[in-house]
# Entry
Amino acid sequence: MHKFFYPQSVAVVGVSANPVNLAQGIVANLLKFGYQGQIFPVGPRGGQIFGLPILPSLEDLPRPVDLAAILTPARVVPQVVETCGRLGITRLVVESAGFSELNEAGRAMEEEIKGLLQRYRLRLVGPNGLGLINMENGLALPFASLNPPPRQGRIAIISQSGGVGSHLFAWMAREGLGLSKFLSLGNRLDVAENEVLAYFLEDPGTQAVYLYLEGVRDGRELMNLAHRAAKPIYLHVPNVGEETAVIAHSHTASLASDERVVEAACGQSGMLHIKHQREFLAAAKLSGQPPVNGRRVVVLSRTGGEAVVTAYACRQWGFKLPPLSPRLAELIRQRSRAGVIRPTNPIDLGDIFDFAVYEEIVAALCRDPEVDAILFNYGPMADFELDRGREMARRCVEQARAAHKPLAVTILVSLEEEEYFRETLGVPVFHFPEEAVEALAANLHQDNPAELTAPEAPLLFSREKVADILPMEPGFLSLSQALALLDALGIAAAPWGAASTPEEAVALAGRLGYPVCLKLDAASLVHKTEAGAVILDLGEPAAVAGACATLARIARDSLPAGEDWQMVVMAQVQGGLELLLGARRDPAFGPVLAFGAGGVGTEVLEDVSLRIAPLDPAQAREQIAATRSGQMLAGLRGQPPADLEALSRALTILSQFMLHFPQVQEVDLNPVRAFTGRPGLLALDARVRVK
Amino acid sequence: MHKFFYPQSVAVVGVSANPVNLAQGIVANLLKFGYQGQIFPVGPRGGQIFGLPILPSLEDLPRPVDLAAILTPARVVPQVVETCGRLGITRLVVESAGFSELNEAGRAMEEEIKGLLQRYRLRLVGPNGLGLINMENGLALPFASLNPPPRQGRIAIISQSGGVGSHLFAWMAREGLGLSKFLSLGNRLDVAENEVLAYFLEDPGTQAVYLYLEGVRDGRELMNLAHRAAKPIYLHVPNVGEETAVIAHSHTASLASDERVVEAACGQSGMLHIKHQREFLAAAKLSGQPPVNGRRVVVLSRTGGEAVVTAYACRQWGFKLPPLSPRLAELIRQRSRAGVIRPTNPIDLGDIFDFAVYEEIVAALCRDPEVDAILFNYGPMADFELDRGREMARRCVEQARAAHKPLAVTILVSLEEEEYFRETLGVPVFHFPEEAVEALAANLHQDNPAELTAPEAPLLFSREKVADILPMEPGFLSLSQALALLDALGIAAAPWGAASTPEEAVALAGRLGYPVCLKLDAASLVHKTEAGAVILDLGEPAAVAGACATLARIARDSLPAGEDWQMVVMAQVQGGLELLLGARRDPAFGPVLAFGAGGVGTEVLEDVSLRIAPLDPAQAREQIAATRSGQMLAGLRGQPPADLEALSRALTILSQFMLHFPQVQEVDLNPVRAFTGRPGLLALDARVRVK
# Structure
């Protein structure tokens, strides 16, 4: 990646002197940003642009350049790539659109280019992107006019969409946040996010990285990078749902991950999950400060109303406002001009017009190890305060820096003071206290999350036995196959047996004990309940026989002609809590485990937590505890807990199963029943799909 | 209120020539805002300020002024009020702090002032506020310097806190939103929010009202005003929780309502519930546009990435992106320069550089009755586009205005274009598409909510029978009293009886049928389960006798010496869903009904919906349907529903009960069981408290 960001010379291919030519925007940006290397505009019509001659062809270059930025019609790009290869130009940035994001012809062109990259050992950023920027050396390759230009600083942006990236660094500039490097991935024909992220994580000029992706390419590698990173990573993946998927696909040819999977991946690897662009801006304002080590904050506010608003926000984001230390309380009591201020937290500075007191308070808070962060709502109330207020602000900022204490400043009313903080003190400020609290939350210190690729734990089941049961042909396992699989995995199901005739079913029911339930067992029948093929509460032999007749009719009416079927007789389990245990395979993150409310509650309660595999029993316990169902299982109001160990063991087994049998696409155990005060669990239904 | 906002002359009391005198800020603002009436600074030391003589006393006024703005030390205020009364100055705005928000002495001063107001028939705004502003006539009474000054416009602000109000109108100015009138309530000694709101709702210069309150004074009247209002009302009440309550109390002496009650009140009366200051700013940007009549939006975006971001936000806020009409799709297909754009919604305008096409698309969307709103992400990509882009923007805005079609514009990258839209076109713009979608959601057309004070429905129970049961002394009813009350109200409980001895209990259990449960019944025992005083699953006489012994021991150990007690024997109910039905009295909004998950689920599931009384059965049905429990009761996956009619009737009964018996403080029926496919409901426990 280094040669992409630090080239000594750049050719810009596709330039003409026509004022609506887009590629000339690249040349304009290189000049505007003060790029110090050589710039060679290239375009078949020749001429001049911004005082530079336009070379008719790359062949006219005096020697190979380090990098070629290409913005020609898509159909010409393969030929340009070929020429670069022949001439030994190894770093290509393609901004042209019209490739796989548009149609099959575009996809074919990408394949052609891929072949050329391999043949000539070239590296390529794009196509269908906005290139890259390095603020250190003025290398600015976007064709669009960047107004306002980014401000130089220490946050790097990787964006699949050039538009989102450039909108954000314009806003960063407005908010006093500086950019170190930017790269627009586009269609990711060659260079993709993980390679760029790894480079930025090592880049000395970068202290935090924002990633905008419309689809994650290799989620497990991304998690591993994030896990090892010492810098904050902000991950924004808005591409969820069908509507967005369509446009994102046509836009940069991406495949969507479920948002909840992204959420789980961020939690497990220590990335911050960004859902709105403004969230990133708020979080980034504190990225230059030490992390917030706990939830105890003190609020200083020049107006009581904004103190209330801040306290409310603290409550919403889970921060505590502990009482002030006795010494600080006494200080405030002494210094309140008319005795109008109470020494509470939040501190309403209302009537204190002596700024020396503000400095004393901030100094005391900086020294106090019981204070994790300071929120300061400041604004001058009268013109005579302006100069003294600025001096006070400067000293407070210096104190907090020296003490490594996070300080989040919201400027009240006055826009000029915002400017002063941002430009003179170098402190990005918040416009509303709610944003400051949100930023503190984003900046909370996290314990290092668990390694994704932990040393392999011993298998909790016999690989051979399980392999014997898994069918070779793709599709859903029949219910009896799935239940036999659970048995081989060591996950308990309710007592059951298979029967082919009413007589066998009645005999089985007698052995299992009444009441029982009957289920139709056929490979093609996936949604049994909806088909009426699950009959509950059968209390005596006649009822079982009657149910057999019903299932036979359903089999005749619903199954494909000639399909084999039988019946599963299962002991009817009373009581307990209905749960869901499941797993599926995410295109980017691999196997994902699900735990939550089962039965009808699955749809209505929306009480599911996800974890990316592998999972050990301790992590599975955390996953369970993260749900409301898990809280109920833990025992409420003095009730005994359910068998959390058995549940976490079952999730761990599913994790191992998915990792060891890549042909398995999904497992859905729903409902599983667990009982407070009783050991074990019982799966009542199982769906398993292989490919 | 009119005389407060349109005085011909104003006295400012408390002014001195000392540069740190705060009251001179009031005079400065009146001059700066161009107030055309007469201004009389008043202060005992005399002198001059801004070229105006300072009168030593109100007595020196040539004639009574229409309004006096007072910012003296608190202790002097009663005397100033008295003088105003004597001189016939009837409108007072007191900005001094140090009253009931500070201490008892301050509260006593307020009482003294209240007496003076009555004696002289005066009206007073404040104390402990920032006064008021009328942008029409330049009447600006805040003492704080307002920089930037508000912009004149059509949004009115009522704020208990002067600080929050002035911070917001500074931000409104920045965002192109204009202020009509502002009033800071402070301690609300006399003028309170509802009177000001009623005035603003009639004010021809005001088209929307924002209310910041740290406590609602008369919530039912507020709801009635909102219900009748034709203008949007934004209600922001951040004061929840103990921490905030303390500061809000010391700040403006308020009493908190539960946030969920405020939420219910907003929903029932058509106010928009604001939780963050920025939410109000976003919503207000569309307040000048027609309401959004449905959830079908079309997104136009100059960059594909921001199109994805917008579609994602639409999904989050519940908007639909329907396919484009065939004609529009064909238009886009024809006009796409390199055929790079697909005619999907969102429309990624990417490669269309011909602005005439943008105008054609917007024109087609304006004509389309199937489109409820247009989201437009626009920004110039190159300098040569600037002028044509602005012309296109102007025409699009005009078309949308003429067609009464809501149009939310987000400006990409370029801050200069924001300025152009705001200042030249008079259109506030959004900085991020997520905000635009949030604003559309806030601006959704609502059907007129139900009247709060509906014509009295016939009572569903006998007033006399219920009155007979309610005790005179305050406190909790015993369990048997509460169950008897339910009987009188016509709400079914599980079959039960009271017993004093083990023999009576066993006999009763035999009549009720096994299994039964036993509960200790004593007035002082409120938390029975936690005390171990509920014994379940008693299957035979010996178990009942044993449980009686246990309860006797608990009674001996836990009850106050000498307190009477007995036992309640209740049939043990199996199955069904555990629910909570309850009611309590909110200090501002009066009786509030609660419905949701009961039993242990009450704590864990947090599945409760609230409604302000009165409630009719149809509204109760909506309340039930608003919960996840209600969705389960409605019958899922082909299950029959529970008896929703009985449940909504029970809620209606509780509503009538609370309204007719003001001494009742709370009713808590938890658990109540309801059963899918079976009529009726059964309360298993009841707590009732009277005062």
